[in-house]
Amino acid sequence: MDIPKYGFLSKKGGVIIYQLIILGAIAWIVQTALGYLQIKDFNTHYSELRKLGKVIVGKNKGKISSGTVVAFAIDDSGRIIKGEYMEGISVLARMKLLEGLEDLALNKINDDDLNEYSKGIKKAVKNAIKNYKLK
């Protein structure tokens, strides 16, 4: 049986298929490694916040837009000691300091307090408030 020169089942097409499979496997490995580093970064920041007080986490899952996670260290009265956030659409996003909400009572934060923040951060903060009220 003759192998056709061109087409899906040809020698040349088979090599391309293998190259695509290898490329996909490499992309998956890189994605997994970067995801691991992102989780490790979050856990490190979470542990640091935990040393300051109770930690409340809020999230806003982005379907097409970027997702956001906020974490607040709060004291026994519910006042924010420190806040951090992670926002982005890729595994390259890292935790950053969330300034401007320190010393506010978490359950008393309103929309005016959140004017300067992105839509994702606003939604994540509101989710954190909801999570705080559930405790």
Task: Supply the key terms.
single chain, alpha+beta, 2 helices, four-stranded antiparallel beta sheet, 135 residues, Sufe protein. Chain: A
Describe this structure in words.
It is built from two helices and four strands. It has 135 residues and is α+β, with helices and mostly antiparallel strands. It has a domain at 42-134: Sufe protein. Chain: A (Alpha-Beta Complex), CATH 3.90.1010. A four-stranded antiparallel sheet has the order 1-2-3-4. The longest helix is centred in the N-terminal third of the chain and has 42 residues, at 11-52. The N and C termini lie far apart (71 Å).
Query: What proportion of the residues form beta strands (DSSP E)?
Result: 15-25%
Q: Fill in the CATH topology of the domain at 42-134.
A: Sufe protein. Chain: A
Order of helices and strands: HEEEEH
Count all strands and give the number.
Answer: 4
| CATH hierarchy: architecture of the domain at 42-134 | Alpha-Beta Complex
Contiguous runs where pLDDT drops below 50 for at least 5 residues: none
CATH class category of the domain at 42-134: Alpha Beta
| Strand adjacency order, main sheet | 1-2-3-4
* Rg result: 23 Å
* Shape category: elongated
> How many helices?
2
Overall pLDDT: 87
The first-to-last residue Cα distance is: 71 Å
Structural class: alpha+beta
Main beta sheet: 4 strands, antiparallel
- Helical content (DSSP H or I, runs of 4+): 40-55%
